[in-house]
Amino acid sequence: MISEKNKRPLGERIKRELKRNAIVYLFLTPIMVHFIIFQVYPFLLSFYLTFMDWKVIGDPEFVGLKHWKNFIGDKLAWKALWNTVLFSIYYILPTMSLGLILALIINSGVKLAGFFKGVFFLPVVTSFVIIAGIWGWLFRGTPDGVINYLISFIGIDPQLFLSNSRQALMVLAGLSIFKVSGSTMIYYFAGLQSVPKQLYEAAKIDGASSFRMFWSVTFPLLKPIHFYVLITTTIGSFQIFDSAYLLTGGGPNYSTTTIVYYLYDQGFTGLNLSYAAVLSYALFIIILIVSLIQRKYVGQETNHY
């Protein structure tokens, strides 16, 4: 049977709904307008541009799949993708590991824990331009560079670092690890605070060592944090741009040209916005696939009780 409420005209039901939740729609409307203008519209426009040839000046011309075919045959684009994958390998696990180690230090009850928490978190709130400048000064490829000066005491010859195609990407990854580990620490610290204390007490009664308690109790119960940090660091690693832009300019020999840097170079330096849109969608597809794989193998809920 149809209820009396559903028998009313659609217009009347809409009016009643608007009156009942007027305050909700009042606050929701500007958010939705902002979302449509700055999220939905650019997403649809960039997809439209992938089938057009538009260099800002003049009218766009329909070219079909031309830019997608160019992408498939673009060796530099694939090198940029490979550089991005390498950067992710250098960056993701060290960031997660260092963040967890810092969180364990803070959570251990060490004296001046609040002070150390502020010190570890300081790079997060410091301007990336400033940190990049300090990093470039530390890794200056001359004998009087700070890192070269320190390694000279153990008999290692001066290294070029940012001017060496084999070392530059690792140095940039180190910069990002230093910058982001503080925020990763906060996530893990929050997770450690939520672990029930009685589980540690039970493990002590059973004679478990500190390492055994960490591996059998702490680490498994942090799985939701592992998944969240893994997703955010993976997305961040595939979007790396600022360090390459500030320190290496994509060099030497394109060794630090990541996919986002190449996208920027095509779109804003070469004004080839249509091809840049194709690169952005290729990046979107890769991040989506990687995130779904991580969700399948890491993000599944488990019950440890």
Quick take:
With about 300 residues, this protein is an all-alpha fold.
Structure description:
The longest helix has 33 residues, at 75-107. The model has no long low-confidence stretch (mean pLDDT 89). The protein has two domains: 4-67, no CATH class; 73-297, Orthogonal Bundle (MetI-like fold). It is flat and about 70 Å long. With 305 residues, it is mainly alpha-helical. A two-stranded antiparallel ribbon has the order 1-2. Strand 1 and strand 2 form a beta hairpin. The protein has helices spanning 4-7, 10-20, 22-49, 66-72, 75-107, 113-125, 128-138, 146-151, 168-193, 197-205, 210-221, 223-238, 242-248, 259-269, 273-297; strands at residues 52-53, 61-62. The chain has 15 helices and two strands.
What structural class should be given to the helix and strand makeup?
mainly alpha
What amount of the residues lies in strands? under 5%
User: What order do the strands of the largest sheet run in, or round the barrel if closed?
Assistant: 1-2
Give the biggest beta sheet: 2 strands, antiparallel
Number of domains: 2
How do the SSEs run, as a string of H and E? HHHEEHHHHHHHHHHHH
Write the CATH architecture name of the largest domain.
Answer: Orthogonal Bundle
Low-confidence spans: none
Q: In whole angstroms, how far apart are the ends?
A: 46 Å
CATH class of the largest domain: Mainly Alpha
Average pLDDT taken over every residue: 89
Shape: flat
Q: How many H/I helices?
A: 15
Helix content range: over 70%
Q: Give me the CATH fold name of the largest domain.
A: MetI-like fold
Count of extended strands: 2
CATH superfamily of the largest domain: MetI-like
Radius of gyration: 26 Å
